[in-house]
Amino acid sequence: MSYQALYRVWRPKQFQDVVGQTHITRTLQNAIVQEKFSHAYVFSGPRGTGKTSAAKIFAKTINCEHAPVKEPCNECAACLGIQDGSISDVIEIDAASNTSVEDIREIRDKVKYASSSVPYKVYIIDEVHMISVNAFNALLKTLEEPPKHVVFILATTEPHKIPLTILSRCQRFDFKPISNQTIVDRMNTILEMENIEVSPEALETVALAAEGGMRDALSILDQAISYSNDTVELEDVLAVTGGVSQQILTDIVKVMHEKDVQSALTMLDKLIAGGKDPARFVYDLIYFMRDLLLFKSAPELGGLLERARVDESFKAITEQVSNEWIQEAIMELNQCQQEIKWTTSPKVFIEIAIITITNRYQKQESAADTQDAAAVMKLTSKLDQLEKEIAGLKQQSAGNTQPAPRREVQRTQARSSKTSFKVPYERIRNVVQQAEKNLRKQVQGQWGSFLSQLKTANAPAHATIQDSKPVAVSEDAVVVAFKYEIHCSLFLDHRQTVETVLGSVMGKSLTIIPIPEQAWQEVRTEFINHQEQAATREEEQKPDPIVEQAKELVGEDLLEVHD
Amino acid sequence: MTYSEIVKQIKKQQISPVYLVYGSESYFIQQFKSVITNAVLGENKDELAVYDLEETPVQEVVRDAETFPFFEERKLIFATNPIFLKAKPGSLDFEHDLAVLEAYLDQPADYSIIVFIAPYDKIDERKKISKQMKKKASVVPCNTIKEQDTGKYLDEMAVRYSVQLDQDAKEIMETEVSANLHLLEKEVEKLATFAGKDGVVTKEAAEILLSHTPENSSLRLVDAVIDRDLHKAISIYKDLEKMKEEPIALIALLAFQFRMILQVKLLKRKGISQFDMQKQLRAHPYVIKIALKRERRFTLEGLHRIMDKLAETDAQMKQGTMEKSLSFEFLLYDLIQNQ
Q: Would the pTM of this model clear 0.90, i.e. be above it?
């Protein structure tokens, strides 16, 4: 006979074999014995916790020839038939591959017919969360009022994907992840029957790696057994899972904490030379540290640890290290884990991480030197003082400028700073004369995209111009009003870049003439006044077009113009 | 008349010829159906007819009601979805002849019982037919129950399944299962089978057997964080992780809770009443109440720090700089240890 994997050989055949779920098996057994079982069940829980097994056992028990019983006899024709799948009244459907409405409709149509060889028809729908929404709705009607002889068992790992309308019609059981101790016990019974020797540490490590799934545990165990010679030792399991033994993790944390860089690095070297995957090692180390941290803050967390077994050396090390140290170490290792992804020589990064973790506290101690701290304090207080002074000065100057007449301000500023800006009134007037409204609209429309392009091209240039707006545009020049004078002069430094970007956005080259907003207002009012005058003058001079036409038609001589 | 009064009457064989069952709590509707079927027909279901008024015109139903029963003395007719009672009935490919129904309501046959089942929140009371119905038929309201009434129904179910619920167990059930009566009943049934006849459901049994919906678990997670119970918080998170709950979603959930607490705290400082808070925050009154209770345990700075921390972790996860579950565990650790 071909070899059968352990988890298949030892698939539970009775409720009592479904370990770690006593609350569920007891409820189901009570229901069966009292003949009060529901017509629909939802079994939910992570993989390897016994959902499908429980469903099959349930099907056997209610159909057993000796029913009502607490356990299936596994001897009668019904039990055996269901076990090997030859009885067509117990239907196991893999919903992952039968997801459509048609598949469910088929069930719905066949549900009506009475069972052929056993009292109850049992539909076990595995991975039920995979069926489509429509299929769920099709199922709903059947679940609502099923015939008496039908029991539905829906098994799923993701109960939240099942609509509430379905859930509320079923009795729901949550299968819990199996505790490590239970897994170990179960493995012990199996190993006893199989006559294989496994060391206790090895079993515990298997249980940790299984993360609460019995099937995972047995698979790992299976592999470890094939890998080992006579008895399965810790090393065999670690070789299969690719893990690092807790002893090494504990040691490495210990030497790092004791600032013994040399031994830490040698240990790492040995590990990697021994063929461990560096990334996996970092991962293990991170989770080991996490376990340390959790155990330190809540010792009752025993069952929630992911990597560590609580033993003497583990407890010893939790007492040595501080929370902060672990937290920082984890951050460092996490950083290292990120970097490893992008490198071909992970070992270097791990070494660096180990050195940083080991040396960290020394650095901090030196940083916290009292003399330095005092000096820093002094400096910051001085800075504060200076800042206040500057703010005061600013306020003063701001208060001065506003009421003062414009020209005077310009003069004073021209004297006070070299970068002061002189407004090219002549050129601006020129542009304003030639300005056209639709040109300005065009530029204003593109202004936003111009700014964003400028930002990517040259951020400082963008910073100088971002608070400004184009106010007048002619064919070849743009007048840009800046809020403050200082920006005008700052802008001149970036003029070329800005102009090229603007040119590329607008599709033609434009000269930018900066002007402070205040000055612009003046120019504007001046221009408008000017224009109004011009307009009135023009109107006076310009002859009436009708009169002109009339002149052309009939000649000047015959005309008499009345106003 | 309330639902329970009508049920009592039916059990005493005081049966009206026409019932109008309406409301959106399908639990009551189903219960009513079984109660009336048992009262009218007993074991024999030959004279039970079920019509869907979205497929069959009402005049046909009335005609059936006016026909003598064949096998029994009385016949029972369920007519679901009477859309002509709705404010906006959808279009059908046939017409309901409401005059026939009105005439029947005036003179119902004494050998037939019609039950109109309207699983709608509201029926249009202004319509003539609705008024007639309300006047002539026994109206059975089946509205969804309020959160605070859950306990009452729980007691009633416990009696029905002949099981005793511990005070603690009851509390757990009330908070876990919320106001979905279908679910509640299934849970009671489950606990009852676990405990056996006349058994007592203890807190432990309830804790281990009750199904957790992700929403409820997430809320418990928030509670655990607020109670600063690291053990509980991590184990709930582990459960949620096994159910493939997304850590980022959990962060959003935590953020929602803490944000609510922060908002309530700020509003309370301004001296705003609970009712006005409810209006301003557009939140459920119960949420506000709970937030008010919790608000006292946090300082403003503490809440700010928590929000910052949540945002930070969220960014961390989304940028992928740290493994999601590890990152979340650290968040829990940080929230609980450094408060």
A: no
